[in-house]
């Protein structure tokens, strides 16, 4: 799998009508988006800008959930599971971050 330009990315309105730039922290332009349908352009730019963070969150949530499954069904009795309260705290933290990134991607309150 090829690596993408490191995030977080941001978006900004271009000088041309209905154009948005997706920028990386290094200042590189990752993508330029525009369309004849102006109601779609900014929404697409927000979604593209959130992509690296959404990918990272999905990877961490997947890892966390797989860890929970391993604790629920340990391979051997010798495995010592992490206390449930720590898992609950991490699940709450990840849910909050997921809500923040979804707001970023959809243009909701951040």
Structural notes for this entry:
With 110 residues, the chain is of the alpha+beta class. It has one domain (10-106). Helix content is 53%, strand content 14%. The protein contains 2 helices and 3 strands. It has helices spanning 38-72, 84-106, and strands spanning 10-13, 19-23, 29-34. Strands 1-2-3 form a 3-stranded antiparallel β-sheet, with helices on one face. It is elongated. 8% of the residues are buried.
Question: How would you concisely characterize the structure shown here?
Answer:
The chain is α+β, with helices and mostly antiparallel strands and 110 residues long. The chain has helices at residues 38-72, 84-106; strands spanning 10-13, 19-23, 29-34.
Write the layout of secondary structure elements.
Elements: E1 10-13, E2 19-23, E3 29-34, H1 38-72, H2 84-106
Antiparallel strand pairs: 1-2, 2-3
Helix pairs in contact: 1-2
